[in-house]
Amino acid sequence: MPNVVSPNAYVSRHSYIGSGTVIMHNATVNADASIGDNCIINSKALIEHDCLISKHCHISTNATINGGVTIKNGCFIGSSATTKELIAIEENSFIRAGSLVI
User: What's the pTM?
Assistant: First the structure.
C-alpha cells in the first residue's frame, strides 16, 4: 500500500516509514524514528528521535511523542497527549486527549 505524506510535513530522511502510513499537515518525524505499517500521524503531531511506533497506531493532532518512546501495535494516542521520553506504551493502549504519559 502506498504512503500518503503531506508536502507540509517534515519527515527526516533518516527515519523509516512503513507501508500504508499517512502523515498529515505540519507533522514532524525526526531522525531515527521508525513508524510501522498502516499508521496515521495526524496534523501537527511530533515524533521525536529514536521512537518506535509499531503497526496500526493513530497519533492524533498535536500529540508529542518524545525521544526513545516505543508504542506497540494498535495504540491510539489522543490529541495533545505528551509522553515522557524512554517509555513503552503497551499494545492496544488508548491514551486520552491532553494526557501526560510518564
Answer: 0.96
Phi and psi (nearest 5°) for 100? -110, 115
49 given a catalytic annotation: yes
Phi, psi of 88 (to 5 degrees): -120, 135
What digits encode the pLDDT tens for the residues 59-86? 999 999 999 999 999 999 999 999 999 9
CATH entry, 1-102, from 2.160.10.10, 3.30.450.20, 1.10.10.10, 2.40.10.340 = 2.160.10.10
With CA atoms as reference, report the closest residue to 90 among 76, 33, 67, 37. 76
Please identify which of the residues 14, 25, 49, 58 carries the catalytic annotation. 49
